[in-house]
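> forwarded from #structure-qc
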């Protein structure tokens, strides 16, 4: 365990090429704390039971690769990116955080969020707010207490695809007041209390296609509050009370080959 209350602290314009293979346990604040600094690679670190976030990247920091890190039992978010740029966040594992598994907030820009595993988060598995993400792909999120993937507050994402979301309490994929170019080939497996597979509110989505939604208490796809969807095609719904629901001045231009099986 590092003697710093923040485990490893990189601040005030510091530049680090590689931060790797550290083991940080029971830090009194965060495990890794990067503020107003540049780090090329944050890789293969293990953080257990930090008193706040596992990893913080904040205040106009720039990180190249955030990869293959493990965070367990954090008392806040597992990984928290705030007002910073990250080229890629991939192959990280977050288990049992008290808040979101991975949070990207406050005008952050992240290129690729891929192949991450989040289990048993007390809030959303992947949370994007007021930020831009190029790709959120191939992530596996299991048993989040609210949403599997939550994209809100004027966020933008080019592609949300090939994610597997299991047993979310509220909704598998939730988009509100944001813009998504493509949500495709996601697999959302609900449970008896899961309300909605895909919920889009006050947003613009170009394409929702080839998604599989199973076991939702209410709706497979729910579109509401002046949302515009250009095309919903080749989606499969099973075990949902209703397949597709469109309401409150929303528009789905084309619904093609959606099936209940």
């Amino acid at each position: 365990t590092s003697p710093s209350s923040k485990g490893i602290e990189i601040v005030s314009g510091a530049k680090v090429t590689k931060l790797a293979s550290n083991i940080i346990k029971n830090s009194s604040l965060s495990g890794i704390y990067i503020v107003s600094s540049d780090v090329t690679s944050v890789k293969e670190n293990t953080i257990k039971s930090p008193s706040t976030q596992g990893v913080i990247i904040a205040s106009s920091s720039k990180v190249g690769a955030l990869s293959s890190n493990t965070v367990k039992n954090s008392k806040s978010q597992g990984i928290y990116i705030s007002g910073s740029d990250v080229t890629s966040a991939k192959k990280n594992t977050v288990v049992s955080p008290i808040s979101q598994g991975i949070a990207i907030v406050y005008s952050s820009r992240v290129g690729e969020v891929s192949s991450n595993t989040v289990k048993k988060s007390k809030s959303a598995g992947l949370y994007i707010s007021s930020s831009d993400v190029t790709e959120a792909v191939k992530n596996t999120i299991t048993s989040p207490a609210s949403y599997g993937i939550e994209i809100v507050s004027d966020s933008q994402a080019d592609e949300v695809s090939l994610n597997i979301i299991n047993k979310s309490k509220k909704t598998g994929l939730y988009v509100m007041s944001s813009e998504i170019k493509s949500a495709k080939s996601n697999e959302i497996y609900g449970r008896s209390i899961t309300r909605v597979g895909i919920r889009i509110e006050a947003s613009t989505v170009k394409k929702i296609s080839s998604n599989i939604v199973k076991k939702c208490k209410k709706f497979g796809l729910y579109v509401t509050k002046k949302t515009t969807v250009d095309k919903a095609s080749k989606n499969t719904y099973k075990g949902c009370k209703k397949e597709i629901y469109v309401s409150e001045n929303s528009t789905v231009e084309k619904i093609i080959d959606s099936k209940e099986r």
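QC bot note: Residues 77 and 99 are 5 Å apart (CA to CA). The radius of gyration is 18 Å.
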